[in-house]
Amino acid sequence: MNETKKMSKNEIDSLKEKMQPYILKESQPPYTYYQIKCQECTITAYTSGKVVFQGQDLSWLKKEEKPLRQIFPQAGSDEVGTGDYFGPVVVAGCILNSENQAFLSKYPIQDSKQLSDLDTKKLANIIKENSKYSICICSSLKYNQVHEKHNMVDIKCLLHNQVYINLMHKGYSLPDFIVIDQFTPEKSYYRYLKDEKEVIQGIHFETKAENKYLSVACASILARNAFLEVWEQMEKKYQFSFHKGAGPQVDQCARNFVRQFGQDELKNVCKLHFKNTQKI
C-alpha cells in the first residue's frame, strides 16, 4: 500500500521524532529530508513537503489523523502592543490539557481584539485559574533600550521564546505540540534566535492562530489583559489619558504629553522609533 501526504517541515520533523523508537534503518536519498524504514512501513519525506508511506498495512495512519487544533495538551503564544505607540509589548504563553480545554470551551474565548476590555479582564481571570501560563512584559523604557540593537520582529521572537522558557522554569513540561500566531516565517524566527543560549524547537507556525487554537486565544487574552493593566498604571502615574493605536489622535495625545511632562519622558511611555515621534 502507498499513501502520500503533504506536510509542513514542522510536521515532518515531528513525524520522525514520533517514529524514532521504531526506526530500523535511516538514510537520506536526494531531495529528501530522510527515509526511515520501520518493521511495518517505509517513510520517505521529500524536501517538497510530500511524504510517502509504504507498507502492507497503513490503517494506523487514519487513526493518527487528527486536526491540529484538537491536539491536547497544546501550548500557544501570542503578543499584543506592537501596533500601539504608547504602552508595552506583551507576550503570553499558555498550556492546556484536555481537561482545561473542556472547561474553557464553555466560555467565549477568542482573539482578544474581538473582545471588550471588560470581557478581556473577566476571561483572563478564568484562564489564569484553569491553565498553566507565563507572561512577558517589555516596558516602553526597556523596549527603547533593546530596540537600539534589535528590531520589532527580533524583539517579538525573543519574547515568544522566553515565554516558553519561563514555563519550563516554572516546572511545567512543554507539550509536543506548540503553536505561535505567525508574524514571521519559521526560518526567520529561528535566525533571529541564533545567538540565544536556549531556543525552543519544533514549533508550529500558523497565521490567524488566535482564532483556530484555544491555547493561542487564551494567550492573546492574557497578553491583552497584562497590557491593559500596565496602561492603567501609566494613566494613574501621570494622571493622563493616553490614546491607543498610532493614528493622528495619538499624535495629538503625544503632543499634550510632551507639553506637560517634557520630551525626555516619552521614552518611558512610548516606542520612540514609531513615526509618531518625528511628527510631534
Automatic annotation (TrEMBL):
Keyword check for Magnesium: yes
Chief localization: cytoplasm
Catalysis: reaction(s): Endonucleolytic cleavage to 5'-phosphomonoester
Keywords for this protein: Cytoplasm, Endonuclease, Hydrolase, Magnesium, Metal-binding, Nuclease
Entries under Pfam families matching the protein: DUF3378, RNase_HII
Compartments where located: Cytoplasm
Main EC class the enzyme belongs to: hydrolase
Binding site for a divalent metal cation: D78, E79, D181
Cofactor(s) the protein needs: Mn(2+); Mg(2+)
Domain of life: Bacteria
GO-annotated cellular components: cytoplasm; ribonuclease H2 complex
UniProt entry tagged with the keyword Nuclease: yes
One function term, GO molecular function aspect: RNA-DNA hybrid ribonuclease activity
HAMAP family: RNase_HIII (MF_00053)
Record-stated family: Belongs to the RNase HII family. RnhC subfamily.
Functional note: Endonuclease that specifically degrades the RNA of RNA-DNA hybrids.
Protein name: Ribonuclease HIII
Native organism taxonomy: Bacteria, Bacillati, Bacillota, Erysipelotrichia, Erysipelotrichales
GN (gene name): rnhC
